[in-house]
Amino acid sequence: MIQFKQYIAEAISKATEIKKEELEGYIEVPKDDNNGDFAFPCFKLAKTMKKAPQIIAEEIKLKIEIDTNIVDKIEVLGGYINFYINKILFVKEVLKELSIKQEYGKSELGKGKNIIVEYSAPNIAKPFHIGHLRTTLIGNSLYRIYKYLGYNTIGINHLGDYGTQFGKMIEAYKMWGNEYDLTTDPINKLMDMYVRINELCKKEEKVLEKCRENFRLLESKDKYCVDLWNKFKDLSMAEFNKIYDILNVKFDSYKGESFYADKMDEVIKKLDEKGVLTESEGAKIVDLTDVGIKTPCIVQKANGSSIYATRDLAAIMYRAKTYDFDKCLYVVAYEQNLYFKQIFAVARYLVDEKYVKGLEHVSYGMVNLPTGKMSTRLGNVVKIEDLIKGTIEKAEEIIIQKNPNLENKEEVAKKVGVGAIVYNTLSTATIKDQIFDWETALNFQGETGPYIQYTYVRTQSILEKISEIPEFKDINIQKLNDKYSINILKLIYDFEDTLVQVTKKEEPSILARYLIDLSKAFSNFYNENKIIGEEKELQDARIYLTKCVGRVLKIGAYLLGMEMPNKM
Q1: Which of 13, 64, 290, 429 is the most exposed place for a label (fewest CB within 10 A)?
Q2: Distance between CA 396 and CA 419 in Å, rounded?
Q3: Could you tell me the fold of the domain covering 4-85?
């Protein structure tokens, strides 16, 4: 397929002697068709060229050399150079590519590059609540998209299965374990114990000291503590896996914090050898003022116990040796921004510079309740299990109202309900906070997951009515020259670039927005054009385009983490 953006960037590069790669990133698709198919804004060149954008645009237009078989005309409007592509050539190129590539948009862009995506990471013995939803779904989408673009992608669930919290859980079980039957609803009961022990620790310092001692014993492989810890872990993973199965979330590794327990001494040893380890009130720290971080990084507590940082640093060393990663993404809330700056700064003493450069914190906003911030310590959380169940039940109610005779209502409701949750979670830019509101999450109108699914179902319904779907070689592409068809094809052409933009910005909301735009474009096409019942050439062309829309929507939805029902 002719890469129109690259072609335009190359033509501008020859006229300006600016690198093509830099120019390609500036090229836009105008919202108004009257401003061409592609536009190059000259505003970013004004500073270096010391001229007004309008003058720069006029000068480039005079110098630029283009093939008139590819670009019909060039116009300057304000500081923009607008390019009008040969419509018939454009239609032919896009549809031809779709006919060749069944997995449209898939590429080998990342061939030979190793990408680690760390996401989800729930805490053992605590409920999987909506605070974990964004990391799980953002990470899952990034994992799928990187893999689709040819990267060797490793999804890691860095379980919170170590730390002082387990000293608390062990103490809670010692005190109240006989009050709880953990054979049913174990996580809620462990949660209840955790809330109780935290309340007691606030009141009684000696209880908190016992909790700390329990964790020290756990690190020392005390049999009672280790056995109890394994029991909590097994109960928790059984519950977590139920949720992952419903959400269609997968991981390549479940190596959590405990995996690095025997690898932390190497961290301390290396930092000591580098001469960067100092003592502060009995604790071992690394001073980071040389890189502008005022707060030092603690790597060992005064009582000799490890800390999150020790285990994360051990994980970086292990991942560098094991995976030789180009990028290691941490999908963790922005509350940990300072923490990751500290960890990445300390990592320079432990691994090669290329690995330090590949460390990236994909921070996201918090999910709060309308009543305020959630806390497992206080027990005011919305569990993902309840959210999923409620959304699927609501989806089934709506489906029964709209299509009471639909087969497999439960299966469709699951896809629609989970799709609503996925889209609701990923449609907001990652950095923004979200207030979790049931009304918003369960809204099946407007820019939602169910709207995208409904559009896909509409494409399948149309195709079902045709006895034989035409092939590309039989299509008269001249019949798809109307603006509604062209708008769809422009979006389809832009699909792979959309996926690339997601990886450049680590931002799945770009794909979420794209799927809404494509759904709306098809809705306009459907409303303005008769698809079935026209003369054969026109009908075949429109049917083929409908099939292409369905394919791209299904691929895009999968990469976002949604499943498509065939009927609703």
Answers
A1: 290
A2: 13
A3: Gyrase A; domain 2 (3.30.1360)
